[in-house]
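Task: sequence design from structure.
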């Protein structure tokens, strides 16, 4: 298995719950959706906060992306709730 190393970041309420960032090793070819699935399996808190039924956005290298985006070595992947403003 070829492994890649990424920087995982959380923002807003997710950051309050899980911390700002961490470094992870993943299998090469992992998608953002597969990463989310791995995180869902981590703990009850992750399963609740990152549930598919919740509106959670993802970004790959600071660009909004779909969950089928493939993560490359050295990438930054971020998860955050939708932004509201006014």
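Answer:
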């Amino acid at each position: 298995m070829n492994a890649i190393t990424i920087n995982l970041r959380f923002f807003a309420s997710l950051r309050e719950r899980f911390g700002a960032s961490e470094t992870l090793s993943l299998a090469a070819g992992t998608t953002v959706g597969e990463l989310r699935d791995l995180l869902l399996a981590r703990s009850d808190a992750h399963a609740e906060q990152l549930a598919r039924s919740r509106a959670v956005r993802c970004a790959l290298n600071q660009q909004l992306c779909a969950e089928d985006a493939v993560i490359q070595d050295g990438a930054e992947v971020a998860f955050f709730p939708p932004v509201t403003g006014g």
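The chain has one domain: 3-80.
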